[in-house]
């Protein structure tokens, strides 16, 4: 079974620029999550999708962050404009259904550096 | 919302000794508690989990204990090996609703000394 695919692996941008990350979950996984992991901290949930609908985006900074999962498969996370404090690893995770029953599978993440 | 505290931030043990990492959570409704291992450049990988209807769970050298009254849970690794060196995260979530994103602790960097 292929894992959760994320791209790019690394991205360096200047502050105020925009950036987008892409996630391809495991085939058949209905639930998809985006997490932000700042260096030295645990991952923090940004948004949860069930198929193409948003379940929880309460911690997403909506003034600059947006995410979509148009066909219930791939997802993109966008930051516009980026700030220095957005430097982090952005992790995508997916689950077959309710994650506490089926488990969460994480991708390797995209490391963003904002200079 | 949920808040998870994790201690210690760094733990160094001799190879073959045991390691214990402790976490506390704030939301008494949380009922699912996984532990993840994260190696450099990789995403978190589940190593063991426990649900609130169970007090202890063991898988070979790894065990987790849960005290619901005190709202804390611990990871125990016995007979540590060099490949156990990594960052370990505890997490908590209430699984009864639609939203089931995890709240993570800040992590413990486990160092196994040869």
- Low-pLDDT residue intervals, each spanning 5 or more residues of chain A: none
Residue share in β-strands of chain B = over 45%
Question: Largest sheet of chain B, described in full?
Answer: 6 strands, mixed
Task: Tell me how many strands of chain A there are.
Answer: 11
Question: What class, by secondary structure content of chain B?
Answer: mainly beta
What report would you give on this structure?
The complex is a heterodimer of chains A (115) and B (114). Chain A is mostly beta strands. Chain A has one helix spanning 99-102, and strands at residues 5-7, 10-13, 19-24, 31-37, 44-50, 53-56, 65-68, 75-79, 88-95, 105-106, 110-114. In chain A, strand 4 and strand 5 (44-50) form a beta hairpin. The longest helix of chain A is centred in the last third of the chain and has 4 residues, at 99-102. Chain A is globular. The radius of gyration of chain B is 14 Å and the shape is globular. The interface between A and B is medium-sized, with 26 and 27 residues.
Any key phrases for this structure?
heterodimer, A: 115 residues, mainly beta, 7-stranded mixed β-sheet, 4-stranded antiparallel β-sheet, 1 helix, globular, B: 114 residues, 6-stranded mixed β-sheet, 11 strands
Topology readout:
The complex is a heterodimer of chains A (115) and B (114).
Chain A: E1 5-7, E2 10-13, E3 19-24, E4 31-37, E5 44-50, E6 53-56, E7 65-68, E8 75-79, E9 88-95, H1 99-102, E10 105-106, E11 110-114
Parallel strand pairs in A: 2-11
Antiparallel strand pairs in A: 1-3, 3-8, 4-5, 4-9, 5-6, 7-8, 9-10, 9-11
Chain B: E1 4-7, E2 10-14, E3 19-25, E4 32-38, E5 45-51, E6 56-59, E7 62-67, E8 72-77, E9 86-92, E10 103-104, E11 108-113
Parallel strand pairs in B: 2-11
Antiparallel strand pairs in B: 1-3, 3-8, 4-5, 4-9, 6-7, 7-8, 9-10, 9-11
Provide a short characterization of the protein structure:
Chain A is mainly β and 115 residues long. Helix content of chain A is 3%, strand content 48%.
